[in-house]
């Protein structure tokens, strides 16, 4: 094709047809420009298709992440419900006329903490790579970022409670003879995992435990701390339920967007 145009150009020059040559040259330039524009358009179209494919892949991965996160939320909800119920049972026993040390130990030995796990590999990839902008709808992009901000906030609240109030509560249980504790087992902790306390049947330890319950000042402190621990689980439950509701809405938005795109 290039040789063909070159041949025409030479023939016009040899015949000294300047006007025709100029017209030809202009036409050739126009054809080149049109060719470049078409190539650019095709390249843009290809890149747009690639971006849309990447967008769909990311959104589908986000949906899968949400399924995993839902399971983790359900595990945390069950844990917090159990913790709150145990505190309620302990409070009822502590408010009774004859406090049973064995019952208190049974209720409070399992009142421990649980780390809330965040599963967010896709959003981390989107943010670190800058590919978050592949999600072309601005409102959806804002909703995704807002959801994961609330997820991180929830995890931070649970972590802070674990490291402060719950840790202090468990320390109080042990150092103030509120429960009979098997110290050897409680010291067997691997990788920072906080295992349940294990109680042992020691008559003299039970005497110390129930002696503390007869001291009104000591008993009042135990009541307040157990109530506060139950409240912590109530706060965590509220956060988890709100997170679960937002997650369901987030998943619905993602599915609807994929259907429309």
Total count of strands: 0
Q: Could you give a short account of the major beta sheet?
A: none
What is the rounded Rg? 35 Å
Helix content: over 70%
Beta percentage is under 5%
Helices, by number, come to 8
What's the number of structural domains? Answer: 1
Order of helices and strands: HHHHHHHH
How far from one another are the termini? 41 Å
Could you tell me the mean pLDDT?
83
Query: Structural class, please?
Result: mainly alpha
| Silhouette | rod-shaped
Low-pLDDT residue intervals, each spanning 5 or more residues:
184-192
Descriptive report:
It contains 8 helices and no strands. The chain has 261 residues and is mostly helical. The protein has one domain (2-260). The two termini are 41 Å apart.
Any descriptors?
mainly alpha; 261 residues
In short:
This protein has 261 residues and is an all-alpha fold.
Mind sketching the topology for me?
Layout: H1 2-14, H2 18-94, H3 101-108, H4 121-129, H5 138-175, H6 183-186, H7 203-214, H8 216-260
Helix pairs in contact: 1-2, 2-3, 2-4, 2-8, 5-8
């Amino acid at each position: 094709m290039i040789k063909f145009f070159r041949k025409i150009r030479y023939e016009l020059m040899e015949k000294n047809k300047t006007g025709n040559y100029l017209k030809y040259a202009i036409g050739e330039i126009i054809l080149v420009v049109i060719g470049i524009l078409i190539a650019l358009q095709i390249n843009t179209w290809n890149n747009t298709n690639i971006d849309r494919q990447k967008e769909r892949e990311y959104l589908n991965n986000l949906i899968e992440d949400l399924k995993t996160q839902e399971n983790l939320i359900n595990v945390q909800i069950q844990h917090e419900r159990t913790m709150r119920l145990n505190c309620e049972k302990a409070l009822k026993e502590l408010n009774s006329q004859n406090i049973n040390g064995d019952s208190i130990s049974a209720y409070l030995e399992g009142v421990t903490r649980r780390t809330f796990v965040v599963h967010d590999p896709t959003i981390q990839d989107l943010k670190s790579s800058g590919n978050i902008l592949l999600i072309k709808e601005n409102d959806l992009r804002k909703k995704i970022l807002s959801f994961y901000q609330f997820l991180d906030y929830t995890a931070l609240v649970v972590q802070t409670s674990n490291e402060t109030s719950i840790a202090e509560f468990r320390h109080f249980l042990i150092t103030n003879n509120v429960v009979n504790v098997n110290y050897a087992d409680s010291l067997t902790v691997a990788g920072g995992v906080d295992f349940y306390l294990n109680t042992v049947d020691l008559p003299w330890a039970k005497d110390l435990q129930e002696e503390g319950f007869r001291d009104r000042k000591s008993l009042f402190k135990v009541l307040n701390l157990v109530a506060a621990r139950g409240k912590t689980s109530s706060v965590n439950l509220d956060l988890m339920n709100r997170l679960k509701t937002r997650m369901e809405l987030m998943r619905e938005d993602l599915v609807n967007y994929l259907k429309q795109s």
